[in-house]
Design a protein that fits this description.
Helices cover about 35% and strands about 20% of the residues. The chain has seven helices and ten strands. The strands form two sheets. It has a seven-stranded mixed β-sheet, covered by helices on one side. A three-stranded mixed β-sheet has the order 1-3-2, with helices on one face. Helix 2 packs across helix 3. The chain is elongated. The N and C termini lie far apart (about 120 Å).
């Protein structure tokens, strides 16, 4: 009997603990909830939660881009008096940065305490300038507008004339931009030319002493529904320089066309050979088919 009584007492104590522990936790949780409802406004209104927008940490733009992006974002998004307790703060900050013409994508936003924000950005990369001939036929001046690889228009005031000269030009004749800075140009020809310029981007520094413009091809189009392009070199000795019949834009190649990578390698080879010869290249090369690409290894179409 004594043994049985000891077991019963132990079992009864364990049962009471099973009941009491959850009850204590529930009461504690209720107390915390009640206290938070009463004092939460006081906590959130503490200066430590007030966001100083000037101290937002964000991905810095390229060194050559001399622009106060943060100040423009703060003004556009009305971020002067925000608190990290605002439920839609990240949405407001994301929208403010995303609407800037130089911001391609807002990758991530992190909120830190005391009140600060970390914003990871991807910036647009200029790849070419679209040439718009002047209305006056006697005036050879062309208006040029910077674009990225998606034909998004970039603010021209951020480029010096010297810097603008380091990019290829795209000339597709008469064309009209349909959007503001930060929006696509709105012309499929310009968009296709931008794709070629983006392909050339990494190698352009080694090509731009010879080449300077992407334009609609002077040859009949290889397909009825897609435009062909030429990459044109700088004039040599008063005559027309190198003309490379490139073909369709990357991603739009026909079944008989070499890949964009193969055409790029051939283009670099032509320029390097000419550079070794000590003269600017001239003549025409057709890279629009595998057969033409192979023939271009030997002789141009014209000399």
């Amino acid at each position: 009997y004594e043994e049985g009584s000891w077991v019963d007492a132990f079992s009864g104590g364990a049962s009471r603990r099973v009941v009491l522990v959850p009850l204590i936790l529930i009461l504690f949780g209720f107390g915390v909830w009640f206290a938070w409802r009463k004092y939460s406004d006081t906590v959130w209104n503490h200066p430590a939660y007030a966001l100083d927008p000037a101290k937002i940490e964000y991905t810095q733009p390229p060194e050559w881009l001399k622009r106060d992006i943060l100040s423009e974002v703060i003004k556009f998004g009305s971020l002067e008096s925000k608190r990290i307790s605002d439920q839609n703060l990240t949405v407001q900050v994301r929208n403010a940065f995303a609407h800037h013409p130089w911001v391609k994508r807002v990758e991530r936003i992190r909120i830190h305490y005391p009140a600060s924000l970390e914003v990871l950005l991807q910036y647009r990369k200029p790849v070419a300038f679209v040439a718009l001939p002047d209305d006056d036929p006697t005036d050879d001046v062309a208006f040029i507008w910077p674009i990225d690889g998606e034909s998004t228009v970039l603010p021209p005031e951020d480029f010096t004339p010297e810097f603008a000269q380091t990019f290829p030009r795209i000339d597709v004749g008469a064309t009209v931009r349909t959007g503001a800075d930060g929006s696509p140009w709105g012309d499929e020809l310009v968009a296709d030319g931008a794709k070629i310029a983006e392909l050339l981007y990494e190698d352009w520094d080694s090509l731009r002493d010879v080449l300077y413009q992407i334009e609609q091809s002077s040859l009949p189009a290889s397909t009825s529904d897609r435009a062909d392009f030429d990459i044109v070199g700088r004039p040599s000795g008063g005559s027309r320089g190198l003309v490379v019949h490139w073909g369709c834009a990357p991603g739009k190649e026909q079944a008989f066309e070499p890949t964009a990578k193969a055409k790029l390698e051939k283009l670099k080879e032509l320029v390097n050979e000419a550079r070794l010869s000590g003269q600017l290249p001239y003549g025409e090369y057709d890279l629009r088919s595998v057969r033409a690409l192979q023939a271009a290894r030997h002789d141009p179409l014209t000399r």
